[in-house]
């Protein structure tokens, strides 16, 4: 299996599970026990993302297609910058823009496309086949929606803090440039 | 324990105005009447008001003035969650030198659940953390106040006429001023089921004061109504902007149709209630005054007084007899199986909190018939019953029987007895119990 391409400046803990062709941009933090699985195609993750524990980002095969079927083109999953994947969320969306927040235990289906500034609330399951417009908030047990006027702020403070503290307590995966110690601010 | 995990399995019958069957954990036991009471045969009274988010107590008079709303806390108009105050730093010009800017704190309200902020409706950020937020005024307030005053006067006038008629017919044994002052609080006034609501009269002017004649103008009917906009049918709907019915009705003053006019309202207060037995007027449940305390000053829950399914909650030895329901018992409507209960009397030891720790205690010597008693442990007993399901089809098997046990009323008032100190007498209580045993497996 190809190893992950982790850019310099990203903080990826060893206890996280990264399988397949995964590219992780700089200033991204991947917590331990996060899982990024590229089964049916590569995953490209931008910079400044925060992927918390037990989050699952999976590029899986569509349901009715077996892995051995020929003629299936691998689709790339793209994730933009400054996104937050909170604890325990599951994301199979193939295209995620910038500045989104996917709260704890949220579930994104394969056919959803998130634009920018969206917030998918805790425990909300979104498995419709649509493009979620910008600045949408999905909340509540019935997945009610509303549009907010401000987009969520990028978690720069949190990212800086984690990039300093996590290496003190966990081992990090090697980055592309070959250095085993991550770049400190 | 059936009372905690499967509360609906064992139901007790309460003899009140209505026959109610409910689990023991929801029942109260009036020890003055020696009867079970359910929530429907007690009267509920308001004890105190408090805000659920800031846990601040509010005296009843103040609560009435503020329409039962908290002064500090707000509800999100979008999802009805509690709003929290957030601060940002904004550059603001110094009052002395307009060219230099300094960071000042600005506060805005935000909802953690649906991410609504006060900036969404155009409310400016305030410079104080609390107390700066005002609810928008209702444009019809003046008219409504005037109408209320007029009708209060009318109600008082009608009440006076009614009382005068009553005075002419018979002499009341309670002076008029007394009844007006105490209003609906006294027993006599409360137990009149057909009495009209006289709460308005309670707020009106007292007798003897100068009564201003208040005239109101009747509402004017308009012929012309504002026409609908021309593109009403063709304009595409901006769905996030449309308010839901619930959001609209929570603001009955304005009922805005657009989400950009949803202003936050003050949070509604909750009450602590006390329960009172209707027959003997004693309190069954009285909560603490402090909103942060969940304890009770008086709490006569049935579980502490009445026998549970064969666990003895009281500290004396209790004798229990089980009697099956006879044919044609009017209370026996739900049972689908016949039950044969042991005919002998069962003896339950008292609850002794120290028994677990006392190793030298002698084991209590109850001679138990092994056919009847399965096991015995401190104040619990397990016994056998035989169940014969009556119906063939799949359904729940429910049996009912009566438990008869002795009860010592520890709270009985001390009567001066002539014989010296006689022990408290035991009274025998009978409860009708229904036990749901579960479905029949073929």
Automatic annotation (TrEMBL), chain A:
<protein>
    <recommendedName>
        <fullName>Dynactin subunit 6</fullName>
    </recommendedName>
</protein>
<keyword id="KW-0206">Cytoskeleton</keyword>
<keyword id="KW-0963">Cytoplasm</keyword>
<comment type="similarity">
    <text>Belongs to the dynactin subunits 5/6 family. Dynactin subunit 6 subfamily.</text>
</comment>
<dbReference type="GO" id="GO:0070840">
    <property type="term" value="F:dynein complex binding"/>
</dbReference>
<comment type="function">
    <text>Part of the dynactin complex that activates the molecular motor dynein for ultra-processive transport along microtubules.</text>
</comment>
<dbReference type="GO" id="GO:0000776">
    <property type="term" value="C:kinetochore"/>
</dbReference>
<dbReference type="InterPro" id="IPR011004">
    <property type="entry name" value="Trimer_LpxA-like_sf"/>
</dbReference>
<dbReference type="GO" id="GO:0005869">
    <property type="term" value="C:dynactin complex"/>
</dbReference>
<dbReference type="GO" id="GO:0007052">
    <property type="term" value="P:mitotic spindle organization"/>
</dbReference>
<dbReference type="InterPro" id="IPR027777">
    <property type="entry name" value="DCTN6"/>
</dbReference>
<keyword id="KW-0995">Kinetochore</keyword>
From TrEMBL, chain B:
<dbReference type="InterPro" id="IPR008603">
    <property type="entry name" value="DCTN4"/>
</dbReference>
<dbReference type="GO" id="GO:0005869">
    <property type="term" value="C:dynactin complex"/>
</dbReference>
<keyword id="KW-0175">Coiled coil</keyword>
<keyword id="KW-0007">Acetylation</keyword>
<keyword id="KW-0963">Cytoplasm</keyword>
<keyword id="KW-0206">Cytoskeleton</keyword>
<keyword id="KW-0832">Ubl conjugation</keyword>
<dbReference type="GO" id="GO:0001725">
    <property type="term" value="C:stress fiber"/>
</dbReference>
<protein>
    <recommendedName>
        <fullName>Dynactin subunit 4</fullName>
    </recommendedName>
</protein>
<dbReference type="GO" id="GO:0005938">
    <property type="term" value="C:cell cortex"/>
</dbReference>
<keyword id="KW-1017">Isopeptide bond</keyword>
<comment type="subunit">
    <text>Subunit of dynactin, a multiprotein complex part of a tripartite complex with dynein and a adapter, such as BICDL1, BICD2 or HOOK3. The dynactin complex is built around ACTR1A/ACTB filament and consists of an actin-related filament composed of a shoulder domain, a pointed end and a barbed end. Its length is defined by its flexible shoulder domain. The soulder is composed of 2 DCTN1 subunits, 4 DCTN2 and 2 DCTN3. The 4 DCNT2 (via N-terminus) bind the ACTR1A filament and act as molecular rulers to determine the length. The pointed end is important for binding dynein-dynactin cargo adapters.</text>
</comment>
<dbReference type="Pfam" id="PF05502">
    <property type="entry name" value="Dynactin_p62"/>
</dbReference>
<dbReference type="GO" id="GO:0005813">
    <property type="term" value="C:centrosome"/>
</dbReference>
<keyword id="KW-0597">Phosphoprotein</keyword>
<dbReference type="GO" id="GO:0030016">
    <property type="term" value="C:myofibril"/>
</dbReference>
<comment type="similarity">
    <text>Belongs to the dynactin subunit 4 family.</text>
</comment>
């Amino acid at each position: 299996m190809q190893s992950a391409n982790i850019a310099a400046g990203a903080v990826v803990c060893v206890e996280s599970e990264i399988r397949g062709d995964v590219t992780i941009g700089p200033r991204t933090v991947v917590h331990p026990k996060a899982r990024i699985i590229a089964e049916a195609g590569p995953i490209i993750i931008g910079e400044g993302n925060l992927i918390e524990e037990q989050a699952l980002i999976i590029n899986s095969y569509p349901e009715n297609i077996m892995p051995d079927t020929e003629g299936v083109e691998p689709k790339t999953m793209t994730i933009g910058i400054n996104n937050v994947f909170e604890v325990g969320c599951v994301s199979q969306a193939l295209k995620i823009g910038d500045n989104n927040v996917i709260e704890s235990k949220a579930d994104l289906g394969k056919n959803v496309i998130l634009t920018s500034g969206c917030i998918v609330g805790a425990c909300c399951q979104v498995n419709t086949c649509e493009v979620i417009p910008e600045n949408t908030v999905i909340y509540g047990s019935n997945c009610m929606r509303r549009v907010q006027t401000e987009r969520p702020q990028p978690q720069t403070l949190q990212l800086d803090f984690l990039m300093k503290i996590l290496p003190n307590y966990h081992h990090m995966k090697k980055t592309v440039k070959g250095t085993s110690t991550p770049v400190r601010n | 324990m059936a009372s905690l995990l499967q509360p609906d399995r064992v139901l007790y019958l309460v003899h009140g105005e209505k026959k109610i069957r409910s689990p023991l954990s929801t029942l109260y036991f009036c020890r003055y009447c020696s009867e079970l009471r359910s929530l429907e045969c007690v009267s509920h009274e308001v004890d105190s008001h408090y805000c659920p988010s800031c846990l601040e107590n509010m005296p009843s008079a103040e609560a009435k003035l503020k329409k039962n709303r908290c002064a500090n806390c707000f509800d999100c108009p979008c999802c009805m969650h509690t709003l929290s105050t957030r601060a940002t730093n904004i550059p603001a010009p110094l009052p002395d030198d307009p060219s230099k800017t300094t960071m000042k704190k600005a506060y805005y309200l935000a909802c953690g659940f649906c991410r609504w902020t006060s900036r969404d409706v155009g409310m400016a950020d305030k410079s104080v953390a609390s107390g700066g937020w005002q609810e928008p005024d209702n444009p019809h307030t003046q008219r409504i106040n005037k109408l209320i005053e007029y009708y209060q006067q009318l109600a008082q006038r009608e009440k006076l006429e009614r009382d005068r008629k009553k005075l002419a017919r018979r002499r009341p044994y309670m002076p008029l001023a007394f009844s007006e002052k105490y209003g609906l609080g006294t027993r006599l006034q409360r137990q009149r089921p057909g009495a009209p609501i006289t709460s308005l009269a309670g707020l009106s002017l007292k007798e003897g004061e100068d009564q201003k004649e208040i005239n109101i103008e009747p509402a004017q009917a308009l012929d012309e109504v504002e026409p609908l906009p021309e593109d009403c049918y063709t304009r595409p709907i901006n769905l996030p902007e449309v308010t839901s019915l619930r959001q609209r009705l929570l603001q009955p003053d304005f009922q805005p149709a657009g989400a950009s006019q949803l202003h936050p309202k003050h949070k509604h207060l909750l009450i602590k209630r006390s329960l009172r037995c209707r027959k003997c007027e004693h309190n069954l449940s009285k909560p603490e005054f402090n909103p942060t305390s969940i304890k009770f000053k008086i709490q006569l829950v049935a579980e502490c007084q009445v026998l549970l399914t064969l666990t003895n909650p009281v500290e004396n030895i209790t004798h229990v007899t089980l009697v099956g329901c006879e044919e044609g018992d009017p209370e026996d409507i739900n049972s689908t199986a016949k039950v044969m209960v042991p005919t002998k009397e069962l003896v339950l030891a008292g609850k002794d909190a120290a028994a677990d720790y006392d190793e030298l205690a002698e084991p209590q010597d109850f001679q138990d018939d092994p056919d009847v008693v399965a096991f015995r442990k401190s104040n619990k007993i397990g016994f056998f019953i035989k169940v014969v399901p009556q119906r063939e089809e799949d359904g729940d098997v429910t049996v009912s029987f009566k438990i008869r046990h002795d009860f010592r009323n520890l709270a009985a008032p001390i009567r001066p007895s002539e014989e010296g100190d006689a022990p408290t007498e035991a009274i025998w209580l009978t409860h009708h119990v229904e036990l749901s045993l579960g479905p029949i497996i073929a």
